[in-house]
Design a protein that fits this description.
Maf protein
Amino acid sequence: MKIIFATHNNGKIKEMRALLSGFDVFSAEEAGVTEDVVEDGKSLKENAFKKARFVNKKTGALALADDTGLFIDALGGRPGIHAARWAGDNSSDDDKINKVLNELKGVEPAERTAYFESCVALVGNGRKEQIFFGRLNGFIILKPRGTLRTSLPYDLVFAPRGHKRTFAEMSDEEKNSLSHRGLAFRKARDFLLKIRKHG
C-alpha cells in the first residue's frame, strides 16, 4: 500500500515513517509534489484535510496529512493552530522558541500548562475520508533542553505531564510512544492495517 505523506517537514517524515513501519511511505517531494498548500483553515482538521486532498489530487495515491497545534493556557491558547508561523513566516527554530519563552516571562512554572494536539487526515483509495486526533498535556519549561529535531523546535521546551524531561531529551521511540502525533498516527495505522487485511 503506497501512502504519500503531505509534508515537506523532514522531522515529521522521520517520525511518521517510524510510526507507520511496514507501509510504503513517501514524502510529498518524493511523489513529485513540490508546492506548499496555504494552511488557511480555521482548525487543525481543516488544514489537515486541505493538505491531504491536495496531494491526493496531484498523485492519485492514498494521502495522509497532519496538522499540529501548541495551545498554551497562560496565553489564551496561543499559538494554537498557528504554531509553525507564530514568530513570522520565515522564522527560524530559535525564533519560535524565543517567542514562546518571551511571551511566558514572569509566568510561574505551575501556570505554564500547555497541550499539543495533532489531527491526521486520510484521503483517497476510493474510501470515505478519515480523521484521527491525538492530544498530550504538559508544561512549557523555563529554558530549552535537549537535542533539536529538524523543524520541531517546541520539543526543546515542552515536557509531557508526569515527565521531567522534554521531548527533545527523549529518544525517538520514547517520544513517539507518548506524543500527540504518535497517538494520532497509531489510530491511523490501525485503520490502515484493517484496510490492508480486509481489502
